[in-house]
């Protein structure tokens, strides 16, 4: 019997590696599923896995499903499965109609595994970058409860809301981005072309230049002489940051730093709380038991410190603690959300209370984004206007001093 090496998420949401024996890769995946583990990588022992090697930035990752593609596929699956079409036929129909080659390739692979007998959630595991763990967990909950089409419908609604917010931010960022680039071009032209010419005029005169003027001339000379090295250094910095951000220790440190910032930390807490509430609402409504729903919601988080708190919540719930008490003990979630969850526990409407909490928090996040975007444009104008003012002042001060000396002479 062949052996298979695997990397999977255990029931607590932690990555684990191991070796198991099975008749085929499909049987190995089923065994991992029986152990309540979500496979991320699976290959025969001794063979080089397709994803082996040093992790590179997503810029160099193979093409997969983009958020808009995943949203469209989810909505179509919900409609077709809800109409009574078998899962493999629904996936195949969407794949055949897909215009993008990567989407068609991924869906045909998923359909092939479903045809071989795998569940849809297990078939999606081969393309973990296209179907995130929490997405697969929600699909698995829907398969287990018999309400797959309803789960997919809720998932599509959630993805559409997230995509709409991203689009709104993108559209709102166009004008500030153009304004920022234009301001940088103006500052660059002043520093590289205007300041050096004026500096040549002053160096021929026996006059002590103001400190701000000398600083601007020195900065201008540095930019002219070292612009290539500056560009290379920035590229290397971005590349290093992309690679290091994939290391758990570095990511944890960055997550902690973000949370410690006054406004941004509170904003991140709101985002994570809203995502957690929305995920829990979908999973509980789909029939998932509470510990499994918490584990899946934990995987949906992008913040390591938040994941640690949810792990403590899972432990407390499994030991018999109430969910609202466990959430309150983390000191992360807003008091109103904890109160709503406690109300849902008493009334037996936990999924509804999570949904209402998610709507409330999502409205807060949307409002915070609107305020931030409204402040961004004047902020850019003030900063860039200040830079231009400093450059102009460094040019005018020597001229005014020369005029004063001429009038005094």
Describe the protein's architecture and organization.
There is one protein chain. The chain is mostly helical. The chain contains 15 helices and three strands. A three-stranded antiparallel β-sheet has the order 2-1-3, with helices on one face. A hairpin with a 5-residue loop joins strand 1 and strand 2. The model is unreliable at 50-62 (pLDDT under 50).
CATH class of the largest domain: Mainly Alpha
How do the SSEs run, as a string of H and E?
EEHEHHHHHHHHHHHHHH
Strand order of the largest sheet: 2-1-3
- Number of distinct beta strands: 3
CATH fold assignment of the largest domain: Receptor-associated Protein
Number of helical segments with 4 or more residues: 15
Termini separation:
101 Å
Poorly predicted spans: 50-62
Helix content: over 70%
How many distinct domains?
3
Class inferred from helices and paired strands: mainly alpha
Q: Name the overall outline.
A: elongated
β-sheet strand percentage: 5-15%
Rg on CA atoms, Å: 28 Å
| Superfamily (CATH H level) name of the largest domain | Type II secretion system (T2SS), domain F
Named CATH architecture of the largest domain: Up-down Bundle
In round numbers, the mean pLDDT is: 80
Topology:
Blueprint: E1 3-9, E2 15-21, H1 25-34, E3 38-44, H2 67-82, H3 87-97, H4 101-115, H5 120-123, H6 133-145, H7 148-203, H8 211-244, H9 248-260, H10 262-285, H11 290-300, H12 304-318, H13 323-329, H14 335-347, H15 350-408
Antiparallel strand pairs: 1-2, 1-3
């Amino acid at each position: 019997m062949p052996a298979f090496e695997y990397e999977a998420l255990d029931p607590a949401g932690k990555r684990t590696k191991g070796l198991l024996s099975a008749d085929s890769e499909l049987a190995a995946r089923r065994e991992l599923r029986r152990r309540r583990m979500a496979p991320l990588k699976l290959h025969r022992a001794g063979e080089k896995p397709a994803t082996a090697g040093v992790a590179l930035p997503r810029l160099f990752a193979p093409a997969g499903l983009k958020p808009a593609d995943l949203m469209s596929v989810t909505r179509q699956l919900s409609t077709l499965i809800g109409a009574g079409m078998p899962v493999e036929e629904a996936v195949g129909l969407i794949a055949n109609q897909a215009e993008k080659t990567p989407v068609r390739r991924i869906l045909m692979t998923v359909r092939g595994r479903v045809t071989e007998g795998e569940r849809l959630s297990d078939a999606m595991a081969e393309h973990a970058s296209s179907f995130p763990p929490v997405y697969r967990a929600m699909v698995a909950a829907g398969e287990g409860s018999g309400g797959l089409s309803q789960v997919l419908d809720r998932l599509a609604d959630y993805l559409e809301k997230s995509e709409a917010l991203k689009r709104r931010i993108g559209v709102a960022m166009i004008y500030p981005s153009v304004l920022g680039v234009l301001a940088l071009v103006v500052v660059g032209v002043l520093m590289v072309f205007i300041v050096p010419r004026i500096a040549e005029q002053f160096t021929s005169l026996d006059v002590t230049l103001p400190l701000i003027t000398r600083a601007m001339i020195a900065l201008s000379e540095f930019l002219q002489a070292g612009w290539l090295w500056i560009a290379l250094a920035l590229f290397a910095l971005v590349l290093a940051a992309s690679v290091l951000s994939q290391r758990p220790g570095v990511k944890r440190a960055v997550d902690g730093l973000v949370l410690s910032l006054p406004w941004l930390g509170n904003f991140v807490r709101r985002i994570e709380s809203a995502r957690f509430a929305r995920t829990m609402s979908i999973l509980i409504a789909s029939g998932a038991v509470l510990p499994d729903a918490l584990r899946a919601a934990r995987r949906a988080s992008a913040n390591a410190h938040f994941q640690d708190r949810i792990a403590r919540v899972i432990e407390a719930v499994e030991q018999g603690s109430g969910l609202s008490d466990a959430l309150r003990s983390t000191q992360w979630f807003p008091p109103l959300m904890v109160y709503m969850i406690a109300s849902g526990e008493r009334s037996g409407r936990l999924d509804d209370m999570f949904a209402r909490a998610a709507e409330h928090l999502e409205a807060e996040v949307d409002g915070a984004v609107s305020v931030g975007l409204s402040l961004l444009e004047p902020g850019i104008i003030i900063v860039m206007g200040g830079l231009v003012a400093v450059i102009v002042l460094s040019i005018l001060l020597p001229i005014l001093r020369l005029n004063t000396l001429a009038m005094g002479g």
